[in-house]
UniProtKB/TrEMBL annotation:
Pathway assigned to this chain's UniProt record: Carbohydrate degradation; pentose phosphate pathway; D-ribulose 5-phosphate from D-glucose 6-phosphate (oxidative stage): step 3/3
EC number per UniProt: 1.1.1.44
Pfam families (UniProt xref): 6PGD, NAD_binding_2
Keyword presence, NADP: yes
Name used for this protein in its record: 6-phosphogluconate dehydrogenase, decarboxylating
6-phosphogluconate dehydrogenase C-terminal domain ranges (all copies): 181-355
GO function term, MF aspect, one: phosphogluconate dehydrogenase (decarboxylating) activity
Record's keyword annotation contains NADP: yes
Family: Belongs to the 6-phosphogluconate dehydrogenase family.
Annotated SMART domains: 6PGD
Upper classification of the organism: Bacteria, Bacillati, Actinomycetota, Actinomycetes, Streptosporangiales
Amino acid sequence: MDATAQIGVTGLAVMGRNLARNLARNGFTVAVHNRSEARTRDLVDGFGDEGSFVPAYSAEDFVASLERPRRLVVMVKAGGPTDAVIEEFAPLLEEGDIIVDGGNAHFLDTRRREAELRERGIHFVGAGVSGGEEGALNGPSIMPGGSAESYRSLAPMLERIAARAPDGTACVSHVGPDGAGHFVKMVHNGIEYADMQLIAEAYQLLRSVAGYSPERIAETFRSWNTGRLDSYLIEITAEVLAHRDGATGEPFVDVVQDRAEQKGTGRWTVQTALDLGVPVPGIAEAVFARSLSGGAELREASRALPGPVPEPLGEEEAARFADRVEQALYASKLVSYTQGFLQITAGSAEYGWDV
């Protein structure tokens, strides 16, 4: 197979598929590979008109299709699956080639992998990718950590496919060596846990104290999103609160399962903060709230306990209360970001990253 692809993506679940499509849409020739050949065929058959793809159905063909230095992006589950893919491809690579892990790996795993592959002359980049499925396709925020040499090779591609800040700056930067990128992505997720918890608490205050309906709260959030609270999370919260369940006609927030899951990055943030001796109470309480939501039966039982039932506020008083909630939400967001940035600073000092 001719070496015609500028970059390759292995692991074509939704995130990997969309990242490959993003690269192809931006003019790069992309080698694509998956353990299941069907996913490779589905990508090329369904989206082959979006750009130039080189399908590969074996590890050997995939590596052979890549130009030197080879740039190989791994988009599989963190942990054992990532190690397995690295061990499959590393023996086929040469000195100076680059493996990029775009998953939510623990930064200590990334440090270990980077050190092991460095001894073999292979660059290893742990790149946090933020923005979910839509971001992967249309422009994510990317947090790569690894050698400066590897970033110079990847930068033109990453800057092309990344999201753009309002001033046009690409949302990608070389965070630092070895695990720095995945560390920053981990803390980024921890801050997001806190952000979501704060929004949930603001909703609960507006509903329980101000007496607002979900639709009214959606209007309030839309109003907030035009000011200093402007953000993706506020925007989608308003959309969710305005949505009604198709089967029952009830507000969707009243019928959705009352339980939240977690992928682990928020928990890692808190555990690492304890190791570093950095207080992140807002992030920690958000992680505990996720765990609390899993005890649905216990929470249901507690609803029958006696206690005060607040009377809804009058219209004018409720409006004043909503303004105070907005102020509290804004202040709390600042605190959460500060806690996260302090943790990044401490991690950078501990591991010599100079983030």
